[in-house]
Amino acid sequence: MAINFLSPSSPSSSCSISRVLNPPAIILLGIPATASAATFHHRGCLSIEIFSKARNNDRNQKLGGLASLPLQQSNRTLFQCNGVSPINTVTLKDVKLFSLFQEIGIHERGTKLLLENNPDLTFRPVNTICDRIQSLEKLGIHCHKLGRLILKHPDLLTAKEIDSFVHFVTVDLESKIEPLKLEHLFNTTDPRFFVGFEGNVKLLLHHGVPQEKLAHVLNNVNLAKALCLKSAEELERTIIFLNRFGGVDFIIRRPVILNYDLDGQLIPRFTYLYELSEKDEDATATVFRKVPGVLTYTVDHLKDHVEFLRSFAGLTNQEIFRIVLLYPNVFSASRKRKLRPRLDFLKQCGLNSRDIFKFLIKAPLFLTLSFDKNLAYKLVFLVKIGYKNRTKDLARAMGAITRISCKNFQQVIGLYLNYGLTCNDILIMSKKHPQVLQYNHESLEEKMDYLIEDMGREVRELLGFPAFLGYKLDTRIKFRYEERKKVSGEGMSISKLLCVSAEKFRSKKKKKSPLL
Prior knowledge:
The chain is mainly alpha-helical.
């Protein structure tokens, strides 16, 4: 159905989409041209929902029904050309399209450009366009976000791949993919690549990804790189390759690994560390199982870190791999901001290459801890209790307290002081047995209470045998003390009591037992 009206001038017989969107400033069907879009909106704006319900009645709609449509005022002229006499016309379809796009935040200017640049839209039934918009809204992309998306990528309204994609996401995947992930996908990927998405997702399920973990995986990968742009064959090869690191469990822990290219990225990175490990495949796989993120570093990044440890710290490839095997996060530390100043500190404390290796095997976390929030605080405490700067003793003490928090370290020092030990006593104990600085303060308190109250010893006995604080209270200290007290009484050496092996302790117990 077309609405014809007279035009004051008809300079050309050619017609354009822009004129279809801009009715002239004359009285149309008895409605003054000065009436605003809001006037029509209050009378009943044609929303997507209303249109969807009423579209079957469109053919029976009478001319007077146009009073309810949200036409906007304009001073331009509409044309429908018949080749000889131009007849100025606006169709009901044009009005519906305008209203439809207005509902998702696309106003007159945007609609005009959209139709001018995408003439295919003018040949599609309005019902079809409405259905497509509604299906996209089911993905959780609404109103103005959807409007902006369509303005940038109008093929979302015409691409044939969209319907099957939306159906799979909303029905099979129960709409569990986050709308932001889908927006990013639509913004970066041509719809023709959506064809393989469903098959690749089902391939993940086929290889063992649990249904309940599937949404977690999909929401933590780049949907385009991992599942749209990869062929099923390439994805399957990637999954099989990852089986040596734990397969499905590895993917669930680090879904982003699926973003990477197998031949160009994953295999070269594995191969580099495999060569560094002297071709120990199990050890190399262990590195990636511990920290899957290592596979996300480029080969150049890995090489630069290894070369730095080799040249600056004097470590061998074998030593470097042993450190990496113990603590793969060494690759996450900045060479300039973390590795260099920390290794320089160890060198200033008098440690040579062999000493540095031994230190890092015991305390690799030292390389990645924050200086301002951790290391500096601990250094101040160590100096306060008597450690001298730039000494091996200071380095050993730092290694001992690397794993504990600053709060626990402070509580440990405070505990020793509360039990009557001096800073010098703590220094003597920690030089003999650096671990006394790293024990949990609560377990320390229990052991010191037992030593003083139950065993009747002086706290200063710890100066001669600080390792006492490292033994388990119930299964070692209490058990042996109670057993030996039955035979030898209370005046026994705590070092001899605890240092002997379990086998020797049992044999001595049998010899001295009057029942045996």
